Amino acid sequence: MQEEKKPIYLQVAETIEERIQEHKYVSSQRLPSDYELAAEFSVSRLTVRKAIEYLIQKQLLVRYKNRGTYVMNQEKIHSGESGLRGFSEVAEAQGKKTRSKIIESGEVPFHEKLWETLEAAENEEIYHVKRVRYLDDEPMTMENLYIRRKFLPKEMTTSELEHSIFGLIEQTMKIAYSHQEIEAILATKEVAKLLEIEVGSPTFFAKSRTYSVTGIPILYDESHYRADKYTFQNTLVRMNRE
Question: Which domain holds residue 21?
Fold first, then answer.
C-alpha cells in the first residue's frame, strides 16, 4: 500500500525543523520572511504561515508583532531548579543581568478573598507591586505581588521595589517555602504589551503563596511568564502509602 503523502505545509515545517536541529538556524535567529520562504520552497505564503504556526505550537519558533519570526531561545530560565529562589537570584546564578519596571505600587483596598489568602487581619495593610522583570533587557515576566506590609521595611523607596522583593522581606522575616500552582494560558492584550509578545501567545500563569519558617503567609503572587523563555522544575515527593 502506497504511503500517504504528507501535506505540503508539514514538509516545509519539517525542513525548517531540521535546519534548527542542525544549527543552520540558531537560537534567537530571525527567519527569512514569509515571502522569502514561500519563494524558496515554491509554495504559497499561506502554506508557509501554516508551517510556521505548526512550529510555534511545537515551541520551536516564536513570532513577535512587527518584528518577524525567530527560533525560540533554548537557554531558558529554570524556575525551581535549585529550590525557592527569586528571579534575581536565579538570573545571577546564570550570569545574567536583571532590571525591573514598576507599573504600579501602593496599598490596596480591603478585599476579603485576598485577606483570607494571606491570613491577614481585616485592618492589616496589604501592599501591592505590579512590575515587569527583564533579563538582559528582554521582558521575561509580569508580576502582581501582594505583600503583608508589616513584613516589609518601614522605610522603603520605590527604587528598592525594582530589586529583590525576597531580599526586602528577609530584612524582617526569614522566608522558608512557597506553594505554587501553574497553568498554561494565552496572553491577554495587557500581558502581551508588557512582555512584548503577540496577543494569544502561550504563557505560564503562576499563583504562589510564600511562607515564613513558622508557616505564616507573607506574600501572594500572580505572575505571567513567557513560555518561550521559561521552564518550571518541581520535585514531587511520593507519600508513604503503607
Answer: 8-71
